[in-house]
Design brief:
By secondary structure, this protein is of the alpha/beta class. The protein has one domain: Alpha-Beta Barrel (TIM Barrel), CATH 3.20.20. The protein is built from 13 helices and 8 strands. The chain starts with a helix and ends in a 7-residue tail after the last helix. Bound molecules: glyceraldehyde-3-phosphate, 1,3-dihydroxyacetonephosphate (13P), sodium ion and zinc ion. Belongs to the class II fructose-bisphosphate aldolase family.
Amino acid sequence: ALISLRQLLDHAAEHQYGVPAFNVNNLEQTRAIMEAADATDSPVIMQASAGARKYAGAPFLRAMMEAAMNEFPHIPVVVHQDHGTSPAVCQRSIQLGFSSVMMDGSLGEDGKTPTDYAYNARVTRAVVDMAHACGVSVEGEIGCLGSLETGEAGEEDGIGAEGKLTLDQMLTDPEEAAQFVADTGVDALAIACGTSHGAYKFTRPPTGDILAIDRIKEINRRIPNTHLVMHGSSAVPQDWLQIINANGGEIPETYGVPVEQVVEGIKHGVRKVNIDTDLRLAATGSIRRYLAEHPAEFDPRKYLGESLKAMRDICIARYEAFGTAGQA
Ligand code: G3H
Ligand code: 13P
Ligand code: NA
Ligand code: ZN
């Protein structure tokens, strides 16, 4: 059944767990998420990015999510719009029946240029007014996502600051976060705490604290009633990188956010954990391997079915690690 982000994350805060928010673009991802949630008794957040809407078409995506809820009526599902770059984009999603939208006013409408506080607060407030009138939740963002190792924002189809970022930009200021919540009334707030979008987060195996856990704690202390969101939370599984490269791929050495670090964040108030890259890597690795091992096969259901299984296993692992399992 459809629920709002506020409803789900209030429950997650009360019971001290986190919820992975997986991006969906196609049938296999949608089914993988639902089958994993069904197997582990987990509530679901599925989200559509601008890239997903461009690829599948917003009505197709929304209908696919509806079909998922019809087939698994016992699972609570938040249908969320990821990284809206303007109030108009969010308005369209509300109209299509999304139960939650992200207004990312930390970047301009180009998805690249960092904005000032006044702009961010103004566009986010406009979306909150619209969304709350319809029972729809809103996620905002303060700060610029960037890897504390490389200073790069990373990039996913046009969302990400251009050029090198300063440490100041890459860590959300707790004071500013508190002001932003007071000014906008957002239900959830994406913070910058050392993660970045995409597969290229860290060039070396991450050791110790690659996330600014103290910063997460401090922000959570200042805004205890606003749910924290961590974008760029893929682990970039080394086993899938190896399978991709053993079957014709050429992905350079790279590392993501270890699952244990995300779990540490959840202990300190992170409730929504955005994951896209891990499902992309699992899909690509499983399809490359299947086609390499079955060169005469040409039924797409065979290799796409492999991707479904590979993505489902990642979803199950995250539901279990984040404490989402058993909470539906
Ligand atoms: O925020 C980025 C997500 O990973 C979605 O990326 O727009 O390429 O689908 P996308
Ligand atoms: P990853 O690229 O780490 O999977 O992050 C996805 C994300 O934050 C989508 O908004
Ligand atoms: Na940002
Ligand atoms: Zn994101």
